[in-house]
Amino acid sequence: MVMAVIILLLGALFFYTQRASLEKAELISPEIAPVKNFIDACISDVARQGITILGFNGGYISFPDEIKNNPRSYLQLGPISSIKNPYWWYDGIESVPSESFIARQIEDYITSNLDTCISDFSAFSQFDVRQRGSLGVKVTLNENDVAVDVNYPLELTNKLNRTTIMLEKFKETLPIRLKKAYEMAKDIYESEKKNFFLEFKTMDLIAMDKNIPTTGIETTCGEKVWRVDQVQQKLKRLLNVNLPYISIVSSEFDEKVYVPNPFGENTYKDSYYGKHYSWQITDKNYANLKVSFAYEENWPMQFYARPSNNGIMKSNAKKSQSFLDFFCLHIWHFTYDVVYPVRITITDNAPKSEPYQFNFAFEVSVDHNQPRRENFASTLFEQAVLGNQEEYCNDVVNDITIYTMENTTDQKDIAHVNLTFTCGMFTCNMGETDWLSYGAAAGLTKAFPYCVNGILRGSKEGFEDSQRFMRTEAPGTYTLYLKPVKQFQDYEIVKHDFDNPSIESKLKENEKASITIKSTQSDFETFGVYPVEKDFQIKLLNDDQEYEVAIYLSDEDSIIGGYKGTWKIAASTVSNSKKIIFHVLEKQGNDDETALFVSGLDSYSQKVPQPELIG
Known about the structure:
Layout: H1 2-24, H2 33-56, H3 65-68, E1 74-76, E2 84-86, E3 89-90, E4 93-94, H4 99-118, E5 127-131, E6 136-141, E7 146-158, E8 164-174, H5 178-195, H6 197-208, E9 215-218, E10 225-227, H7 228-242, E11 247-248, E12 251-252, H8 272-276, E13 278-279, E14 286-294, E15 302-306, E16 312-314, E17 316-319, E18 328-333, E19 335-348, E20 356-367, E21 370-371, E22 377-378, H9 386-394, E23 396-406, E24 418-423, E25 426-432, E26 434-436, E27 441-449, E28 454-459, E29 466-470, E30 476-482, E31 485-488, E32 491-497, E33 504-505, E34 512-519, E35 525-530, E36 538-541, E37 545-554, E38 559-569, H10 571-575, E39 579-586, H11 591-599, H12 601-604, E40 612-614
């Protein structure tokens, strides 16, 4: 009897669950099942594309204006690469994308690209398909997958029998552990921000290398001399070689990988790296997640050694007195400022998930041999409600005086500079400066909304946009300096054959060049691409300058030419010119020949003329 009752109960439970699941299931007629499956496949494909792009670009698919318009705010992996890693921290600005921002990026990508995949249902000519409402997309990042819910109201009419069927709800679940990778990335970033792991490793590399001077003493009469550029290049090489040995505790890492070790087994675990490059960021288990750290020698680095003069570092000579006048003593003590980007790649290879890669980057900052990672402001990429922004901008607290001046030796006043003030997600238009005190100064005095770490920005035609941090919790006075510049929309690239530089030619249709111009006297830099695009006007400072020019010429496959060199120009030449002609060398060959050419570009570039300013 007991067994019979159990069997009856199990049977009843089985039929109840089957009925419940059938009631929840969406009944799709066989004739429109192919359409439903097609839409599901498109949603899955487009979502997967968006998630992949987002992983390559550090949590971004499309970049906010604060990043898109500032090449210093992201790491570009090559001169013409479409992959950009916006820095999660740089120059005191924190730009970490939130989980809601990431989900919204994927939603926007699906909304913008789904129609392209569906292609107006051209594959289903037997139906008239009409959209009966707006497309709505909701993305949820779960622990082990990404759920995509799409509201897509469609009316399908069979052209043969004129029957009409409605489709609306679609749901796809992608087995991609985006959330796991993103959360680990945040854990690494937060640990770095708190413990300065990478800054200390940078200083270890400097202190332990005999070719990078720090503090020393030598009883010799021969002067000790180092070149700053060579010291910088050595540090770049050290970072490139050593950073990949960093391992995150509780993540996937092969501790048996070969590492030369004169004091034990030749494995990572028994080496110096196994003891000093193992980084515990939290107590979490990061199973199936593998992390790698990278710095490439061609990536940017801000490097300053003190004391130094004209790129040379020297020891101080101390000569003894009296009967020891033959005895010479050289001592030295150098400190360094170093800022460079590091890119972290998190790879997920969980058995039941799709392989996934998440890259992100931030700057490592050393000041006077000490970690320096202060946050002056946070860039929040959440969509603000217009009414809230208006309310914030109108809720003013204190009068602030802003003066606007040229960033030149003359420091002339500049009127009619447009000013904006940004605090978090809100940006307020503060108006335009004017002449004050009968033309004695240029500026404005205005009540600003409350902000502890706000960003004041100024723009005026003929000047480079400028910005600075400011506080408004108390009345104050600030000066905003703008550099006078001249914009060149008209510029071109002329090719010279490597073997016969006197032969000139124009670029082919499939060739493109990227141009970077950096001042050797300040932090000014400008960028251009050729063929010229509207948003890439080249700007030059309107004063006497020396620039470092780097041009890379590429076709659809690889780099085929370029130019590197210094360029000295006078302010009068800039003012009287309307066009720039850049000269590059073209070198065709295999990968090894191309690498050799690029590494010697500084020397090879002497075969062609410097950039020319044409009146």
